[in-house]
Design a protein that fits this description.
With 574 residues, this protein is α/β, with parallel strands linked by helices. The chain contains 14 helices and 14 strands. Helices cover 43% and strands 14% of the residues. The N and C termini lie far apart (128 Å).
Length: 574
């Protein structure tokens, strides 16, 4: 479980790192590619290293059987017993269960981190209940240097356990020693002395729970027993300080110093070596050598100290993994918010620069300001798209600043319009007067000059859209063929021209001074009069506009009249 959780955490860290770089941080595309490749390679190396460690640990941890471990729902203390453990356990059962705790034998220093790993792997819920008991039996040691080296080995192993036990577990010590002669209780029960953080000094435990100061308890005994007990306790405390507390409290390279959270002394018959450390200590003070006693059975366990051990809450490996995952997510969120803030500041700065440049331009010439306006229009389209479709995540997380940029951008775009392109100059070519010819027979009866009733339509169709203006003279001229005498044709042509002039004057509300009427009779034929077609072409009324400076210039006159020349061709003449 530990290995799988580490793999999941590594995968989570890789995913969040890639998401942060590709989705939030304002990096160039090349930089993103290089950094992403580096993260993938680093993660692959970590995965490979974890896989190798898993294979190695699996091969070693299989040496520890699970039947010695407490059940998953065990509520008491789980104690890893290190040091002099042989007298505390049988040769075939490497654990002891009591009402208050579950004691696991650790036979050597190399086994301690393996047992901690196995316990954290298969019983992760019990990690917070684990403590380490350093057992010390001075009567089974004769070589001082060997004992010190052994304690240093246990020190290294204890520090290695923090990887699996969510830190260094509580460490406490117990010394088992033979009582001074007849100082044991009459029923040969073990006599316990404890040092706990909640009570000052050394306390004696009677009936399992009552803790009396040693001085008070000593005065209850006779003088020789009191003297021997004080000598024994002082000697044991000196040995405990010299071989347990002092070696572990010294910092050794990378190994931190350790302090016992509790300590105990158990006076009970112990199998002893000749010339052991306790004998050496007492003989150095009194020149007497205590006699070694034989012991059978297992030594008693320090259950009375279990309630005084510090309780660790929420520091199991599973909880530590949850905390680490939470720390990864929090770090990702913090960096993502920082990246979003940077991205929004860059957006504000970019749009502000475009606005400042736009307002600095006067529009003369218009090309630079048109270019600046195009940049603002691009910014406006981008902001509008993000407004309708939601802004990208790299600008989000509650830090988006684009909404406050839309009003000034829209106002700047609408307060200036580029000037229209100049119109091409069209040169007006003044040509000679155009002539519109109207057929006389479509306007008049034979030999008559009054307009026929149906001639109005002909005149309107011919003159629609024709306007007159000051500086132009409207000339209406009548023409006939050679039928009849010259005088009659002259009068007839003039009268017909006057009739057309009168119609235009009355219908168009054109002053009479804008007209000139002429009658040419048969003097200006268009074709020869020898044929019907020629005579029909010669019977006509011509209307033309002739430029004349003072024509139609009376004050207050703004009339609009025809500007083209109308030619009336008749198909028939009398």
């Amino acid at each position: 479980m530990r290995d799988s959780s580490r793999t999941i955490l590594t995968a989570l860290a890789t995913f969040l790192t890639l998401w942060l770089m590709l989705g939030f941080w304002p990096l160039a595309r090349g930089s993103q590619l290089v950094l992403s490749l580096g993260v993938v390679l680093l993660s692959s190396s970590i995965f490979w290293f974890q896989w190798r460690q898993y294979r190695q640990r699996r091969a070693v941890s299989q040496q520890i059987t699970d039947h010695i471990l407490p059940p998953e729902d065990f509520q008491g203390a789980v104690v890893l017993v290190c040091g002099d453990t042989a007298p505390l356990f049988s040769d075939f059962v490497h654990f002891r269960e009591t009402r208050s705790g579950w004691y696991l034998q650790v036979q050597n220093a190399e086994q301690l981190p393996l047992l901690a790993q196995r316990l954290a792997t298969v019983r992760p819920a019990l990690v917070s209940q684990v403590s380490v008991l350093l057992a010390f039996i001075p009567e089974q040691h004769a070589a001082e240097e060997d004992l010190i080296q052994s304690q240093r080995g246990w020190h290294r192993s204890l520090v290695q356990c923090r990887t699996w036990l969510a830190g260094i577990p509580p460490v406490w010590s117990v010394v088992w020693a033979s009582p001074p002669g007849s100082s044991a209780t009459e029923d040969n029960d073990a006599q316990w002395f404890t040092v706990t953080p909640d009570l000052p000094g050394v306390r004696v435990r009677q009936h399992g729970h009552v803790a009396l100061p040693v001085t008070d308890w000593q005065w209850e005994t006779d003088t020789p027993s009191r003297f021997r007990l004080a000598l024994w306790l002082d000697s044991i405390l000196v040995l405990n300080e010299r071989y347990l507390s002092r070696p572990l409290s010294l910092r050794q390279g990378e190994l931190p110093s350790l302090k016992f959270c509790a300590a105990g002394i158990c006076l009970t018959p112990v199998s002893a070596l000749t010339g052991n450390l306790l004998q050496q200590q007492i003989s150095g003070i009194t020149t007497l050598r205590p006699q070694s006693e034989a012991s059978s059975g297992m030594l008693p366990l320090p259950d009375m100290l279990l309630p005084h051990l510090p309780r660790r809450h929420g520091i199991s490996r599973r909880m530590q993994d949850v905390r680490l995952a939470g720390a990864l997510c929090f770090t990702f969120l913090a960096l993502a918010c920082l990246a979003s803030f940077v991205n929004n500041q860059r957006l504000v700065r970019s749009v502000s620069d475009h606005l400042a440049q736009y307002h600095q331009l006067s529009g003369t010439p218009p090309a630079p300001k048109e270019q600046a306006q195009r940049r603002l229009r691009a910014d406006s389209r981008l902001l509008d798209t993000w407004l309708r479709q939601s802004e990208p995540l790299r600008y989000g997380l509650g830090l988006y600043q684009g909404l406050r940029l839309i009003p000034p951008v829209e106002a700047a775009i609408s307060n200036w319009t580029p000037p229209p392109p100049p119109r091409p100059v069209i040169k007006k070519i003044i040509t000679g007067p155009r002539t519109i010819r109207l057929d006389s027979m479509s306007l008049f009866d034979v030999g008559k000059w009054q307009l026929k009733s149906g001639s109005t339509k002909v005149l309107i169709n011919a003159l629609v859209g024709i306007k007159a203006k000051p500086g132009w003279l409207i000339v209406v001229a009548g023409h006939t063929d050679n039928t009849g005498d010259d005088a009659s044709n002259q009068v007839l042509s003039l009268k017909r021209a006057e009739s057309v002039r009168d119609w235009m004057r009355d219908t168009g509300d054109v002053p009479e001074r804008c007209f000139a009427v002429q009658g040419y009779g048969e003097s200006r034929p268009l074709k020869i009069n020898d044929t019907d077609v020629g005579r029909a072409a010669n019977r006509r009324v011509e209307i033309s506009l002739v430029p004349q400076v003072n024509a139609c210039m009376a004050s207050g006159t703004h009339s609009v009249v025809t500007t083209a020349t109308i030619q009336v061709q008749s198909n028939k003449e009398y």
